[in-house]
Amino acid sequence: MWIWIVAAVIVILALAGYLIMKLYPSLGGESSGASRSAIERSPNRAEGKFENQIPTSMGMSAGSAAKLLVEFMKGNPHGRPRQPLSVVPFSADGFRADEEDKATVTWYGHSAALLRIDGLTLFLDPMLGRAPSPFPMFGGKRYSQEPPVDIDSLPDIDAVILSHDHYDHLDYGSILKLKSKVRRFFVPLGVGAHLIRWGVDPSAISEHDWWEEIDFEGLKLATAPARHFSGRSIGDRNSTLWCSWIIRGRQANIYFSGDSGYGPHFKEIGEKYGPFDLTLIECGQYDERWAAIHMMPEETVQAHVDVRGKAMIPIHWGAFTLAMHAWTDPVERATRAALSRNVNIVTPRIGETVRIGDSTYSSAEWWK
């Protein structure tokens, strides 16, 4: 009798899991047609999966995994701000200020950044949701009580640029609210399937492999390698590509790292596309145990030097707790490393607009 009960429970759970994976839209879609063919032709795949340029282990022993689980359950008393973070309100006038002269960028915490360049508006990894999870009611909540910007207040967006499909970069709810404002989506190979499932017109989506260059209304966009991985559901790890981006216009040349461990690709990018007026490079959610896929803050500064950047905004912090370090450690360590190497580090408040190429940048230690 008990055997039959256990078997029935297993079958019910398996069926429920299958239905969630097939019917729950936040998990994303699967590539087909021309997208599938482009994926299969990519030179950056092996044994049916995308791979990094250099060996990148994400494995962890059972003992290390158990220890990590205990650490996460205990938490870090300094892992989140004591009070919700305040956000600088969006100003359309400030965002477009002096657009004939200089490009502007507005950072919205984590890796989300709104860019105004050569009269065009671009949104990089626009994760504006409450939690980086397929089920937003669970998981670590954003540090601010409200979204960092009201999507309805934003101007029309010429293009959204995505680095990869992880939940803290590609958010279902944000895309649903943004899609009617966006003319084009530029994404790594395979990521378009998620957008299509969420109602984005396939003709508005452009998928790209590493080192592809795109002309977009006077801008020169290019995809470049990152050292990371991808996946939104069970069994789909590395089925889509991850990348960094180069955005070159008349007003500025910008590098956006996406997520990446440190590696030789940064020097390669600097030699091919540098120097950059501004870099946005990840510096948070790190741990020695997964340093191959998320840089330590000192490596962030080295990556900026490698790509030949003039000024750097450290990103991938200030919104969510996805690692065990204190929430301010990323920016404090990156700032110390930058000062020791005479690197111009820019630390705007969340929602503050920065003019790219100014002689002086915002460097207030607002997190204190």
From TrEMBL:
InterPro entries, alphabetized: Metallo-B-lactamas (IPR001279), NAPE-PLD (IPR024884), RibonucZ/Hydroxyglut_hydro (IPR036866)
Pfam families per UniProt: Lactamase_B_2 (PF12706)
Skewed-composition ranges (Basic and acidic residues): 38-47
Residues of the Metallo-beta-lactamase domain: 124-317
Annotated segments matching region Disordered: 28-47
GO MF terms held by the record: N-acylphosphatidylethanolamine-specific phospholipase D activity; zinc ion binding
Gene3D superfamilies xrefs: Ribonuclease Z/Hydroxyacylglutathione hydrolase-like
One Gene Ontology cellular component: cytoplasm
Catalytic activity: 3',5'-cyclic UMP + H2O = UMP + H(+); 3',5'-cyclic CMP + H2O = CMP + H(+)
SUPFAM superfamilies: Metallo-hydrolase/oxidoreductase
Purpose of the protein: Counteracts the endogenous Pycsar antiviral defense system. Phosphodiesterase that enables metal-dependent hydrolysis of host cyclic nucleotide Pycsar defense signals such as cCMP and cUMP.
Record protein name field: Metallo-beta-lactamase domain-containing protein
Record organism: Cohnella endophytica
